[in-house]
Amino acid sequence: DVKVTQSSRYLVKRTGEKVFLECVQDMDHENMFWYRQDPGLGLRLIYFSYDVKMKEKGDIPEGYSVSREKKERFSLILESASTNQTSMYLCASSGGGWISYEQYFGPGTRLTVT
Amino acid sequence: AQSVTQLDSQVPVFEEAPVELRCNYSSSVSVYLFWYVQYPNQGLQLLLKYLSGSTLVKGINGFEAEFNKSQTSFHLRKPSVHISDTAEYFCAVIGSQGNLIFGKGTKLSVKP
After folding, report:
1. Fewer CB within 10 Å, N side or C side of chain B?
2. Cα–Cα distance between A78 and A85 in angstroms, integer?
3. Hey, CA dihedral for A97, A98, A100, A101, is it positive or negative?
4. Mutate which of A43, A66, A94, A110 to test chain B, going by most B C-beta atoms within 10 A?
5. What's the rounded Cα separation, in Å, for the pair A78 and A101?
6. pLDDT tens sequence across A40-90
7. Using the beta-carbon criterion (under 8 Å), do B98 and A4 form an inter-chain contact?
8. Is the CB of A100 less than 8 angstroms away from the CB of B103?
9. CB distance from A31 to chain B under 8 Å?
10. What are the Cα distances from residue B58, in Å, to B6, B54, B62, B84, B112?
11. Residue A99: which of A37, A47, A30 has the closest Cα?
């Protein structure tokens, strides 16, 4: 079974802190994604990556950056956390080239910024 | 541009009743469609997908969906629901960059 793990299930940070959310997949997938999930808004794509050291902006990249130094690991970075970044963050991975026919999701990290 | 509209934000239903969760899409590229389910406090799990071929797609847990090109719809159905089907369901379409574009979700609440 594909496994996507996220470093924390729950995280509480203060405004202005630098926050790292880590995601690791064990299926040698090329593609990795970070989404943000908010009630009534569904999932919105923040950043994605097709390969090591490659990154592409999604729909809402402002206030975020990413790092992919190894194929299995994709990190989401909040340079200076703000209260409007309180949300559920979901990581996903997929193989099969640029078309993500099936994405596998991690359990999510619920981030609260106070 | 691609987009997904889930017509109902909440669907309450009694146990053993049939259910339909509605999804309409807009796409300017090849149409690949998905339904995901999210149980409370969990990540998303793929229920079923349409890539090509038969327009009636069967998925896990007794769910099925029908791709209707003329109506640009991909509604999810189950003939008899269980309490354990209580969850949030997301319809998604492939975007032009190979990513998934999700609808806003439908919360299915199954009552005894």
Report:
1. C
2. 9
3. negative
4. A43
5. 29
6. 888 999 999 988 988 999 999 999 999 999 999 999 999 999 999 999 999
7. no
8. no
9. yes
10. 20, 10, 7, 19, 26
11. A30
